[in-house]
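Field log, afternoon session.

UNIT: design team B
ACTIVITY: writing a sequence onto a fixed backbone
BACKBONE:
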C-alpha cells in the first residue's frame, strides 16, 4: 500500500458528457483503476467507461435472505421442539411445513435490510465530506460541468505523469485535489 500523500488526487473538468466518456475510457485503457466521475445528471454508458461492471450487492442480499430464513426456521424450531413442546393431535414436534410462511417472511425482511444497508455501505454513504469539495470549480458539477478524478491511491498514479496524461485528454482544466 502506498503512503498517504498531501494530495488526494487529480480532477479533470469537461464541458460535455461525450468527452467525459471518451476520457474515462482512455483512462481505463491507460491502466488507472481508482477513477470516478461526477456529473450533473445521469450519463448513459459512464459506469462501463469507469469500470463499474459488477457489484457485490446481490450476494449481500442473498446472504441476508438466507440468514433471515435460517433465523425464522431456527426460532420456530426452538420454540416448538425444544423450549415448549406440545404434542397436539399426534403430529410431530418438528412440523416444518407450518414454519415455511414465517421463514419466508423473515427471509424477505432480512434481504430488504441487507439491500438497504449494503447499498449504503458500498456507496460509502452517508459521506458529508469528500476531498473534491476542496476544488473551487467543483460546484459546477451540479450545474453544467463534468469531472473525472484519479485518486492518488491508484497504483499507477504519479502526480506529474498523471497530470500530463489528463491534460492530453483536452479537459477545460486539471486541478490538484488536496485533502
Amino acid at each position: 500500500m502506498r503512503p498517504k500523500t498531501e494530495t488526494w488526487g487529480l480532477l479533470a473538468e469537461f464541458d460535455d458528457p461525450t468527452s467525459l466518456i471518451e476520457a474515462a475510457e482512455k483512462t481505463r485503457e491507460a491502466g488507472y483503476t481508482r477513477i470516478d466521475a461526477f456529473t450533473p445528471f445521469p450519463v448513459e454508458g459512464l459506469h462501463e467507461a469507469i469500470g463499474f461492471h459488477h457489484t457485490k450487492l446481490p450476494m449481500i442480499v442473498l446472504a441476508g435472505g438466507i440468514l433471515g430464513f435460517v433465523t425464522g426456521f431456527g426460532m420456530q424450531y426452538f420454540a416448538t421442539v425444544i423450549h415448549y413442546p406440545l404434542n397436539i393431535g399426534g403430529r410431530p414436534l418438528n412440523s416444518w411445513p407450518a414454519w415455511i410462511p414465517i421463514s419466508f417472511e423473515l427471509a424477505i425482511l432480512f434481504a430488504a435490510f441487507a439491500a438497504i444497508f449494503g447499498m449504503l455501505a458500498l456507496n460509502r454513504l452517508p459521506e458529508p465530506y469528500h476531498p473534491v469539495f476542496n476544488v473551487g470549480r467543483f460546484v459546477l458539477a451540479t450545474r453544467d460541468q463534468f469531472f473525472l478524478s484519479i485518486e492518488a491511491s491508484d497504483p499507477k498514479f504519479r502526480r506529474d505523469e498523471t497530470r500530463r496524461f489528463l491534460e492530453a485528454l483536452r479537459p477545460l482544466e486539471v486541478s490538484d485535489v488536496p485533502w
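LOG NOTE: The chain has a mean pLDDT of 92.
NEXT ACTIVITY: expression trials, pending approval
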